[in-house]
């Protein structure tokens, strides 16, 4: 009989720390499970504020306290907090098992660089990279969601139309509880859009309808108005099947929601509208723009394309 996910996680044999962020309270570990490489990523959760009156309770809040120092009106302590894995967890723990080299690179500490991807670089090299990244089962988790094989009980909203439709559901980064860190993903049913680069003005109705349906669904399910949501797309994304990030405006996502990575859906729609007005051109689209973004040194796009180009060498993709 196959091991349960809990048994797999317990069997993790630590190898090395890939990355740690003391500000965002995250830790990425590399190890093996049953001889296969595995990554654990852990993130300390936000404070539970459903019963703030219990915060100082030695039964239900701060269980133990250790006074570190006192100075005039200032006091600082270390403490332990009452926690439960089901209703008030200390950490959100993700396991990727078995993981690939691409995962190991993605979760490793690394120097970042700004790169400028011209339409020419995109056409000649990046399209090849994207094609490679859509093969080899990397999108299995996406197809599992679209086929209702996994996570179907978590679906917030689905439009089943093959061209206009999508599934809205919690992103794996969300703890499913903390409203101010709400994080949902929109995964579209159509399979012809790998990234923002595939958009032309002909996609405006699709994107505008998606945006409007997402706002209605989030408002109905979570009573959150649209002006409390950041709705954006990554370029480059990790997965080349079109998806959109829907995140609470108060949630600090770090690099994943900042310039050099995230592009607002509203902005994409506006740029497409303007492209639609370019006289005489029916084929202009995001493939014709110079795109500037951040890449880590471990990323294959850096190693195989931008690093060689920077040295005047031919890309190795
Ligand atoms: O960078 P990119 O735009 O490709 O982001 C992909 C998003 O998909 C990230 O926010 C991930 O947290 C999320 N994600 C990745 N996986 C493997 C899963 C999954 O299996 N289920 C869900 N719900 N989200 C995922």
From TrEMBL:
Its main location: nucleus. Its EC number is 3.6.1.59. The keyword Calcium does not apply. It is an enzyme of class 3 (hydrolase). Substrate binds at residues 141, 151, 171, 173, 234-245. One of its GO terms (cellular component) is nucleus. Signal peptide: none annotated. It is found in: Nucleus. One of its GO terms (biological process) is deadenylation-dependent decapping of nuclear-transcribed mRNA. Keywords: Hydrolase, Nucleus. It holds the Pfam family DcpS. One of its GO terms (molecular function) is 5'-(N(7)-methyl 5'-triphosphoguanosine)-[mRNA] diphosphatase activity. The active site is at 243 (nucleophile). InterPro entries: DcpS/DCS2, HIT-like_sf, Scavenger_mRNA_decap_enz_N. It catalyses: a 5'-end (N(7)-methyl 5'-triphosphoguanosine)-ribonucleoside in mRNA + H2O = N(7)-methyl-GMP + a 5'-end diphospho-ribonucleoside in mRNA + 2 H(+). Belongs to the HIT family. This is m7GpppX diphosphatase.
């Amino acid at each position: 009989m196959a091991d349960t996910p809990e048994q797999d996680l317990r069997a993790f044999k630590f190898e090395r720390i890939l990355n740690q962020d003391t500000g965002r309270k995250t830790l990425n570990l590399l190890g093996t499970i049953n001889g296969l490489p595995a990554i654990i990523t852990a993130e300390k959760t936000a404070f539970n504020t459903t019963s703030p009156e219990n915060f100082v309770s030695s039964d239900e809040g701060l269980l133990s306290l250790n006074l570190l120092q006192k100075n005039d009106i200032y006091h600082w302590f270390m403490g332990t907090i009452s926690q439960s894995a089901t209703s008030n967890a200390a950490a959100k723990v993700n396991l990727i098992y078995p993981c690939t080299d691409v995962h190991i690179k993605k979760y490793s500490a690394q120097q970042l660089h700004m790169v400028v991807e011209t339409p020419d670089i995109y056409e000649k090299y990046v399209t090849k990279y994207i094609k490679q990244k859509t093969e080899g089962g990397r999108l299995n988790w996406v197809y599992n969601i679209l086929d209702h094989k996994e996570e179907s009980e978590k679906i917030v909203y689905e439009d089943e139309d093959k061209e206009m439709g999508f599934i809205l559901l919690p992103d794996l980064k969300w703890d499913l509880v903390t409203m101010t860190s709400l994080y949902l993903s929109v995964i579209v049913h159509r399979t012809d859009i790998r990234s923002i680069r595939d958009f032309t003005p002909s996609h405006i109705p699709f994107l505008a309808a998606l945006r409007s349906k997402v706002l209605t669904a989030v408002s109905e399910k979570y009573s959150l108005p649209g002006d409390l949501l950041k709705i954006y797309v990554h370029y480059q994304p990790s997965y080349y099947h079109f998806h959109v990030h829907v995140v609470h405006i108060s949630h600090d996502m770090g690099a994943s929601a900042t310039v050099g990575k995230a592009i607002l859906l509203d902005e994409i729609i506006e740029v497409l509208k303007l492209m639609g007005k370019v006289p005489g051109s029916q084929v202009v689209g995001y493939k014709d723009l110079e795109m500037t973004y951040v890449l880590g040194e471990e990323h294959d796009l850096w190693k195989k394309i931008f690093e060689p180009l920077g040295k005047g060498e031919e890309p190795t993709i």
